[in-house]
Design brief:
Blueprint: E1 2-6, H1 12-21, E2 25-29, E3 42-43, H2 47-53, E4 56-59, H3 64-72, E5 86-89, H4 95-107, E6 111-114, E7 117-118, H5 120-126, E8 129-135, H6 137-147, E9 151-156
Parallel strand pairs: 1-2, 1-4, 2-3, 4-5, 5-6, 8-9
Antiparallel strand pairs: 6-8, 7-8
Length: 171
């Protein structure tokens, strides 16, 4: 599967490497090009370019505003991803932002799984992260199989960012 990864920091880089080691064709983009150095991946010039090359794109980004910019900004994923493709956001962002992103992507036929992870940097390195995903169950099965390369547990439930999830409001 052609898999994109954005967010190559302490957690994202090992997650991306696990996906590549599992046989997926890895594509990456980073705000800081040096973050892509040494990765066995195709490096893209923008999120839109990466999105156009991939069936599934994972993001692990620090803030709600940054995820929204990568997904919906001027050169964002929305401008490259094809209908039927999937964004799996593993960031911990505000539920209203996740719903807004999912809604705008859905208008273009792009699916989104809001899939925050737990387990920290060591969990990412050891592929023992817990992934708690919400979104379209119809698109989740392949994404869960793909993400199991980076996780020891995953759960798909409810729509994107259900209001009842105890998510931090500060991001």
């Amino acid at each position: 599967m052609k898999v994109g990864f954005i967010g190559l920091g302490a957690m994202g880089r090992p997650m991306a490497l696990h996906l590549q080691a599992a046989g997926h064709e890895l594509h990456v983009w980073a705000r800081r090009p040096q973050s892509c150095a040494g990765l066995p991946a195709t490096v893209h010039a923008s999120p839109a370019e990466l999105g156009a090359a991939c069936e599934v794109v994972f993001t692990v980004i620090t803030s709600s505003a940054d995820v929204e910019g990568v997904a919906l900004g001027r050169m964002g994923l929305i401008h490259g991803m094809a209908p039927g493709s999937v964004l799996v956001d593993c960031s911990t962002i505000a539920p209203d932002v996740a719903r807004r992103i999912a809604g705008q992507l859905a208008e273009q036929g792009i699916h989104m799984l809001d899939a925050p992870v737990s387990g920290g940097e060591q969990g990412a390195k050891d592929a023992t992260l817990a992934i708690m995903a919400g979104g379209d169950a119809g698109c989740s099965n392949g994404c869960v199989r793909c993400s199991k390369n980076s996780a020891s547990a995953s759960s798909i439930s409810a729509p994107t960012a259900p209001a009842r999830w105890p998510r931090p409001a500060t991001r």
